[in-house]
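Entry for the shared binder. Reason: the reviewer on the internal report wants the predicted structure included alongside the sequence.
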Amino acid sequence: MKYTIEVDHKLKIIKYKHSGIIQSEEIGYVWENEFLKMKEFTELKYNLFSDYTDAVLDIPVDFLDELMSFMQSIQVIVEGKKQSVVVSDPYSTAASILFENEVNKKVGFHVKVFTTTKAALKWLII
């Protein structure tokens, strides 16, 4: 599992970059062992920048139901926050858009998928 997490206190953004082939378990691990243990994310309402440009999501579409159950269980933490997701390959883009649509409606977590870092960061800081 190859990922990095940086906190930009000035912009109030958590920058998460993951590379390689990403399995659903890896996403769960990062959320449970990193984001949910960060005061910036849980209490200070920092937004999340997720960069998957050097990665491929190897997550089955039917995992979306399990993912949505998890997101609903942490709704009090993520509701009203933003997450920009930057992807580059077709499957990762499609899977991310499916997640975007569901989580926006069901949880109130404002997720948007981008193909460039510049656009993703600009949206987060508006």
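Summary line for the report: The first strand starts at residue 2 and ends at 8.
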